[in-house]
């Protein structure tokens, strides 16, 4: 899976000389720069060579083929010309592996992420064109429990991004009581082993607002330091969303291949959350510096904080940590195995450092004291909150303007 580091995305590209201009214009992270359309490129006065380079690199990034970016750009060919090149030439001239050649020439695979038509990209100042060929979210069919309005969500029938933008915004001052969501539990060992129970009610806002956290990494921007250079003091979690609502991703273990895949597919849609006015924050429950450096910004470019008391993780379980065992929770759980294969197929690296049996999940929290609008629980190892569902919740939580 391609890195979100701008250094790795730009490589030896002719785009490097544009870094000051990109920073000034707000095109300062990989997901946002990939949203550029022809008008944006003309406004920035990109040369034809730079336009071709950006098109090639964006295409390769979508397909996790950035290892070939410098070689393909140096050929002087456009993306269209490269796609029409024979597979033999791609292999011999650019050193592409057979499987990578197949992935490169497969134009039918929908990889591009675009903004819905009514969403405004902050860096652009006007609407982007929508293309419904977004990434498949890989989510599995599951019932969703609504705590306050009895609405049922499903990852199969979840509202599409297009449907999400139709619903009116909720008035300022509305206090969310939230929706709890989780994938269904699978039978384990012929039903002899029961899965851990999960809560039906959303965590009370009081259980998360005063959690003590420490910032490990800021929101990533091109040209910034890789990590916070000075030790940040502890802070109350409510300060994170005091002025801006947040999507809080509670990461079970940053070296886990399934956790990295979830973080990557969520952060890839950063421009959509930017347009909705939401920030992206990852919460870790232990600080291993080497793990943070590997995780940020390669797989996640949002803010990273550590919750050493595991209070966010306890809130997901109604006050207790949700744990599972490796044998019964993974090896004997067909859904967890399926989640692992889904992440493995993407081509991610992984390691086994750190504690990985404490379940994670997600909170969507409104600004100020508006409350928790959505809570997703990682019932099976590797469960992801469906993206369309998260965007739907964020859209509804926008204050009226």
UniProtKB/TrEMBL annotation:
Coiled-coil intervals: none
First-listed, main subcellular location of the protein, grouped into a coarse class: cytoplasm
Subcellular location: Cytoplasm
GO cellular-component term (any): cytoplasm
Similarity annotation: Belongs to the peroxiredoxin-like PRXL2 family. PRXL2A subfamily.
Keywords, in A-Z order: Cytoplasm, Redox-active center
Protein name as annotated: Peroxiredoxin-like 2A
Keyword check for Cytoplasm: yes
